[in-house]
Design a protein that fits this description.
Distance between the termini: 33 Å
Structural class: alpha/beta
GO molecular function, one term: NADP binding
Domain Glutamyl-tRNA reductase N-terminal: 22-150
CATH class of the largest domain: Alpha Beta
Shape: elongated
Site (Important for activity): 93
Number of helices: 14
Catalytic activity: (S)-4-amino-5-oxopentanoate + tRNA(Glu) + NADP(+) = L-glutamyl-tRNA(Glu) + NADPH + H(+)
Protein name: Glutamyl-tRNA reductase
Length: 440
């Protein structure tokens, strides 16, 4: 188990604007992890990047190292949009994220899959060590419990369905023509939600038409749907009553010229960065909504899930305590392992010395001596082993520190804190922001 501490920083829908989220977004999660690992003294790294949040977690010998690495990572974002947290709050926050407590739509299901994907990407990039292995997998476990043991995900559970609800507040969706731009996960959720709302037709436009075709095939059998390339937006966008965009493109894919149709249109932009050029909102026949405009839908869902959220908070509290205990046991086991390794080295040396005094030592002699030595070691170290485990449970880290100094020849005064980071000294407390608090 690493003796480092976790430090995290994030830009989310609650702390920053859509444009600030875009500025924070890395090219990819794996490459972002590699970037963080290249910083001296950063031992582990995990990056979660979605349309609503960019979060980075690092493990280093102290919080000063972590904060410096994360400050550089978010250098392109205004200070007031970045929230920085120390060890305990970082791990607890990640659990809340996986459980859906921090999402735009309380309890939405998409986030837990994104947390898993980020874990796989970070692991592939070499960013997951013993500290984050325990922390991230615990967060995933919390997310699974939240959805199987509570009603946190009942009702509107994705931004795709929220987009449909928002559009339905503006126009009648039954018999409408809907256009979904983007066939990724968000686009899939939006297309399925629109189809379930009984629109007359769903057109899915995507850069790779094969992906759009696959989504068309995946929709309900009685849904009139077709795929189109992005180049066809000139013809398909103007005849759509509802447009939902979710491409992840770096530049807007929908321009005012695409929307100059004869009738009124509702456009919901789920892209991050924005998929719809700002000038489109100036068209008199077009109403454009972005992620910030879904707040009324999310607030309604949040009210309905208040009781379930309290249940999930209790799960988070319990699982966080278990994670802390897991870290404690691992630290105690380090000292115990060092103690037994030192005893094993001594045993090997003394057995060889004893054998050297025999005229013709046999394999049987060796077995007898080693058996006796193993018995002595086990009896002598049984009490210290019990004491070290009790010391960890009681947060008596001076005892464990002394044990490591005695038995681990490579352990020195400069090895960093050996207490679990939850109680080790740090450079600050809880959650801090360079200029704002994440109150999402």
């Amino acid at each position: 188990m690493s003796t480092g501490v976790v430090t995290a920083a994030r830009v989310t829908h609650g702390s920053g604007s859509v444009d600030q989220l875009a500025a924070a977004s890395p090219d990819g999660q794996s490459s972002a992890v590699e970037e963080l690992l290249a910083v001296p003294d950063v031992e582990e790294a995990y990056v979660l990047s979605t349309c609503n949040r960019v979060e980075a977690y690092v493990v280093g010998p102290d919080h000063a190292v972590g904060r410096a690495a994360l400050e550089e990572f978010f250098a392109g974002v205004a200070d007031e949009a970045v929230v920085v947290t120390d060890h305990d709050e970082s791990l607890r926050h990640l659990m809340r994220v996986a459980a859906g407590l921090e999402s735009v739509i309380l309890g939405e299901d998409q986030i837990i899959g994104q947390v898993r994907t980020a874990y796989e990407d970070s692991r592939d990039a070499g960013g997951i060590g013993s500290m984050l292995e325990a922390g991230v997998t615990k967060a995933i476990h919390v997310g699974e419990r939240a959805r199987t043991e509570t009603a946190i995900n009942e009702g509107v559970v994705s931004l795709g369905s929220a987009a449909t609800r928002r559009a339905a507040e503006e126009i009648a969706l039954e018999d409408a023509t809907a256009l979904v731009v983007g066939a990724g996960e968000m686009g899939q959720l939006a297309a399925r939600s629109l189809a379930a709302a009984d629109v007359a037709e769903v057109v899915i436009a995507n850069r790779t038409v094969a992906h759009a075709d696959h989504l068309v095939d995946d929709l309900e059998a009685d849904t009139d749907a077709e795929a189109a390339p992005l180049e066809a937006l000139d013809s398909v966008a103007s005849r759509a009553d509802v447009v939902v965009t979710a491409t992840g493109s770096e530049e807007p894919v929908l321009e005012p010229r695409h929307l100059e149709g004869p009738s009124e249109q509702v456009v919901v932009d789920l892209g991050q960065p924005r998929d719809v050029a700002p000038a489109a909102d100036d068209l008199s026949s077009v109403r454009v909504f972005d992620l910030d405009d879904l707040e009324s839908i999310t607030a309604e869902t949040r009210d309905k899930r208040t009781d379930a959220a309290r249940e999930v908070e209790a799960i988070v509290d319990r699982e966080f305590d278990l994670l802390t205990e897991q870290y404690k046991r691992a630290r105690a086991d380090e000292a115990i392992a060092a103690m037994y390794e030192a005893a094993e080295r001594m045993k090997d040396r003394e057995v060889e010395t004893a054998l050297s005094h025999l005229e013709e030592p046999s394999e049987q002699h060796r077995e007898v001596l080693e058996s006796m030595a193993d018995s002595l070691i086990n009896q002598l170290l049984a009490a210290p082993t019990k004491s070290l485990r009790e010391a960890a449970a009681e947060d008596d880290w001076s005892t464990i520190h002394t044990a490591l100094q005695l038995f681990d020849p490579e352990f020195g005064e400069n090895d960093g804190p050996i207490a679990p980071p939850s109680i080790a000294p740090n450079t600050g407390s809880g959650e801090a922001s360079i200029g704002a608090t994440d109150d999402d």
